[in-house]
Design a protein that fits this description.
With about 110 residues, this protein is of the alpha+beta class. The protein is about 25% helix and about 45% strand. A hairpin with a 2-residue loop joins β4 and β5. The protein starts with a helix and ends with a helix.
Length: about 110
């Protein structure tokens, strides 16, 4: 009986120690993809401000490589477009920015 308890304790301890990760996101951050330069992008969910749901228009902030990047999503002739604080803009599903498409899908599915 004592041997079983000792083995289970060691097994539990080994599981707890092996479950550590290095690149953890903070609470309220959602991974939304990788930019072409290889940096990861995280949506700061507490910054999402939805202005309209039909059609969807909202703003949010993305954290990447130590800086924040603001995104605005808006409707243009019935299609979703985005503009960010780096000056990029375009059709959300145009393939130019998978990060923008992931942000848009995440917000539309959850807000």
């Amino acid at each position: 009986m004592l041997k079983k308890f000792f083995v289970m304790t060691l097994f539990t301890l080994a599981l707890m120690l092996s479950g550590t990760t290095t690149n953890q996101a903070y609470a309220g951050e959602v991974y939304v993809g990788t930019y072409s330069d290889g940096t990861s992008a995280y949506l700061l969910t507490h910054t999402v401000s939805v202005y309209s749901r039909r059609p969807y228009s909202f703003s949010c902030t993305v954290y990447s490589a130590g800086s924040n990047l603001n995104y605005n999503f808006f409707n243009n002739n019935g299609s979703p477009y985005y503009r960010n604080s780096w000056g990029y803009e375009g059709y959300v599903y145009g393939g130019q920015s998978p990060v923008a498409a992931n942000i848009y899908q995440y917000v539309v599915n959850r807000w």
